[in-house]
Design a protein that fits this description.
Layout lengths: L3 H8 L5 H12 L7 E4 L4 H11 L9 E4 H11 L5 H10 L5 H24 L5 H10 L1 H6 L2 H16 L6 E2 H9 L10 H14 L7 H10 L2 E2 L6 E5 L8 H11 L4 E4 H6 L8 E5 L2 H10 L7 E3 L6 H12 L3 E4 L5 H13 L2 E3 L4 H11 L18 H9 L9 H8 L2
Parallel strand pairs: 3-4, 7-8, 7-9, 9-10
Antiparallel strand pairs: 1-2, 5-6, 5-8
Helix pairs in contact: 2-5, 4-5, 6-9, 9-11, 11-12, 12-16, 15-20, 18-19
Length: 412
């Protein structure tokens, strides 16, 4: 029987806690205790505690080595632990945990938690690679923390995946219908993070950040967020008779009037625009000038109105899917170059009078009417020479300065 008081005096002090921890770890791993353990850089108090335990001073030096068989004999001979060192460690620290069995049990719990998701992805093989990445990255485990928490989370994720792509349903209503919580897909929610990663895999969108990017990802799988506030300005899109929005586009084109489409319309209505090319500009002034000067004779034109919104990106992707080529122009300033990089990096567009030669020629023609370029330079992904020419000339050329040239192209 363990002599608790004697055992505590021999082995339970703070200065021997490292020794107890080392022995317990070896026992949990199923390792032999017929060995010695070493503590590098031991304190004088730790060395003194070992001397009291074994009755002899440790070997000189900074490292402290303790023979576990010697400790076992002391514990048995003193009567503190007739069961020896193993019995003493259990008495001091509690019953052992079988780490291998515990790890296997935990892994089995995770597998059970992932079962609904694997079943859902089995019906959507295009997500197989995404699911493999979700497992290897550990994202779901980090977000959930434990298998018991992960179970409901991954079940909700599976339910959402089965409904993707959706048919243009508002985000809150979609979340409430599938999870019972209208805010389950709000920014920062674990489920929203996981669904967004699946949506990106389904739509092929690249990485990004920010509210507008998230809105774009949701729209790419038919889920609407701020569907009435996000919009896109257009002029001259042919439209089609299959939907109210398509018919409205056709009527506005015939009347030479711009059209403002909401994200809701772009996602939910069938807009089949058959045109070989679409011009894309940055500023609404180009659209208003084209409506005034060209009216119904204007080529199809879409305006990003600065950084492109989710409505802009979704419409442009739909136009590309229908066979249109995108031709883009923006302001020749550093902000305009940043916007251009977004357009050219994320869409199959080509420049429209938006290169180094175009900038240089226009700067020479209007140099008396343009102001100085300022701010940190930005390299143009579509024309690496553009940034250097802009730095050399040092002038801002906005679309208002070249609107006549742009209208000439739109009239053809």
């Amino acid at each position: 029987m363990i002599d608790r008081a004697r055992l505590t005096r021999l082995l339970g002090g703070e200065d021997l806690a490292w020794l107890v921890a080392r022995v317990r770890k070896r026992m949990e791993r199923g390792q032999s205790l017929d060995t010695a353990v070493t503590l590098s850089d031991a304190t004088s108090f730790q060395r003194a505690a070992v001397q009291r335990l074994l009755g002899r001073p440790p070997v000189p030096g900074r490292a402290l080595t303790v023979s576990l068989p010697a400790v076992d004999r002391v514990l048995r001979d003193s009567g503190a632990s007739p069961a020896g060192l193993e019995g003493a460690i259990i008495a001091l620290t509690g019953e052992l945990v079988d780490r291998q069995s515990a790890a296997a049990e935990l892994e089995q719990s995770w597998r059970v938690a992932f079962d609904p998701l694997r079943e859902a992805v089995g019906q959507a093989p295009e997500l197989a690679e995404w699911l493999a990445g979700l497992g290897s990255s550990g994202l779901a485990r980090r977000l959930a923390g434990t298998p018991s928490t992960a179970g409901p989370l991954l079940a909700d994720l599976a339910a959402v995946i089965r409904e993707l792509p959706a048919g243009g349903e508002p985000l809150g209503r979609f979340a409430a219908r599938l999870t019972g919580r209208a805010h389950a897909l709000d920014d920062g929610e674990p489920l929203a993070t996981l669904v967004l990663s699946a949506a990106r895999a389904l739509s092929g969108l690249g990485p990004g950040s920010g509210a507008e990017w998230r809105r774009e990802v949701w729209a790419s799988v038919g889920i609407l967020r701020d569907e009435l506030s996000a919009s896109v300005l257009t002029l001259g899109l042919p439209g089609n008779p299959e939907s109210a929005t398509g018919r409205a586009l056709g009527a506005l084109r015939d009347g030479g009037q711009p059209a403002v489409l909401t994200l809701r319309q772009v996602v939910r209505d069938e807009i089949r625009v058959k045109t070989p090319y679409v011009f894309v500009c940055e500023n609404p002034v180009v659209v208003s000038s084209a409506a005034d000067g060209l009216g119904p004779d204007c080529a199809p034109l879409v305006c990003t109105n600065g950084q492109p919104s989710a409505a802009v990106m979704h419409l442009l992707r739909r136009l590309v899917a229908d066979g249109a080529r995108l031709i883009y122009h923006g302001d020749f300033d550093w902000g305009g170059i940043r916007i251009g990089n977004v357009v050219f990096d994320r869409l199959p567009a080509r420049p429209w009078r938006f290169g180094a030669e175009d900038y240089q020629a226009t700067a020479q023609a209007v140099s008396q009417r343009i102001h100085a370029l300022s701010g940190p330079p930005v390299t143009a992904s579509w024309d690496p020479a553009l940034a250097q020419v802009m730095k050399t000339v040092g002038r801002v050329i906005e679309e208002e300065h070249v609107v006549d040239q742009l209208l000439s192209d739109l009239a053809q």
